Amino acid sequence: MLTTAVYAQMATPPAIAVMDTPNDAGGSITMTWPRSAEMPPGTVYRVYIGEEREGPFQLAAEIDPAGSLMSEDLASFGHSPSNDQFHYAHISSYESDSAEGGKVPLESDRPYFARLGVRTPTGESRGQVAEVSARGNYFNWAKLNNFILGTLFSIVILASIAMARRKELYVRRIAGLEALDEALGRATEMGKAVLFVHGLRGMDQIPTIASVNILSRVARRTAEYDTTLMVTNIDPVVMAVSQETVKEAYIEAGRPDAYREDNIFIAATDQFSYAAAVEGIMLRERPAAHIMMGHFFAESLLLAETGTTTGAIQIAGTDSYTQLPFFITTCDYTLMGEELYAASAYLSREPRLLGSLKGQDIGKGVILLVLLAGTFLAGLDIPILTQIFTSY
């Protein structure tokens, strides 16, 4: 059985170190102290904050001796092996009966006085007092790896754009995009319309932006071929953007008189109502080409199967991996995942877009090599790449 003297010896407050909390916007300080090898049962560390060196001191936090190790906060303290031998506490407020909510937040650039107490079943002892101020940090050093990697990838993309302006860059052939002219030509020869079907996402989503870029190319061709183009939408904003995109394409093609605003419309605003409305258009109007681009859900198979029954050539593109199997089995051509995103660069051959596409591909290749190297080094218990690429 432990005596009171033994309790007192084991519960002596250790030396503390206080500092501004690193990598934050201010209003917080950090206290660290050595981990004790043995503490009496029921012991709790108590952090106190005062506005004057003589006090009074108010309770700011209670820390369990079994936790709150510096090794648990890699963003603040890094990966040093010795971090598991120290406790820490981030303090941003302290208790006060007179304050609203019972808490007083710390102010930046103001001196405070901190001390550590150790409470045991027999009482509490308090250690030395240390002065500290909270400050705002201009740079988050924990994210330095993100900054360096982002800068390197940006340089690669800019270099790829510069290269694209000097020479033609190779881009893998995408059959679905190559078949666009074939589908539009077929519709023109048959004297039938082309139906462009947007997905169900709004204009703020990447697949919808990509589909509008493809719509611009389709509209330019239908204007040149004097072919009717119908565009179905589920969102009013997407409809408005589609109308402007098609109108601009017809003007660029020298056929502003052929533009028909009524052919770009909202079919419905509900998922399956939209699917039913588009299916009805397919069966009544019998377009010769169906181009379905964007993010689709369960309605994808309904649309694609209905289009198959009409004999139309169908080209689909989506980044929804759950719907790709349905498009692949029912459509003539399918753009899969990032092929949809690459469409605007592929079709326009604009150097900035091509260079960006090529730079991103190089970045993906580098990431793949790093993953392989990291896996190999992790198997050898060398975590350096894991630490470099950790996102805090």
Outline the low-pLDDT stretches: none
Strand coverage percent:
15-25%
Shape: elongated
Estimate percent helicity.
Answer: 40-55%
- CATH names the topology of the largest domain as Rossmann fold
- Please count the helical segments: 13
Could you say which structural class the secondary elements and strand pairing correspond to?
A: alpha/beta
Question: Largest sheet, if any?
Answer: 6 strands, parallel
CATH top level of the largest domain? Alpha Beta
Strand order of the largest sheet: 12-11-10-13-14-15
The named CATH superfamily of the largest domain: MTH777-like
Q: Could you state the order of secondary-structure elements as H and E?
A: HEEEEHEEEEEHHHEHEHEHEHEHEHHH
Annotated CATH architecture of the largest domain: 3-Layer(aba) Sandwich
Radius of gyration: 32 Å
Q: What can you see in these coordinates?
A:
The chain has three domains: 4-138, Immunoglobulins (Immunoglobulin-like); 142-167 and 352-388, no CATH class; 175-348, MTH777-like (Rossmann fold), CATH 3.40.50.10160. The relative contact order is 0.11. 42% of the residues lie in helices and 22% in strands. By secondary structure, the protein is α/β, with parallel strands linked by helices. Strand 8 (111-120) and strand 9 form a beta hairpin. The model has no long low-confidence stretch (mean pLDDT 90). The strands form four sheets. It has a six-stranded parallel beta sheet with strand order 12-11-10-13-14-15, with helices on both faces.
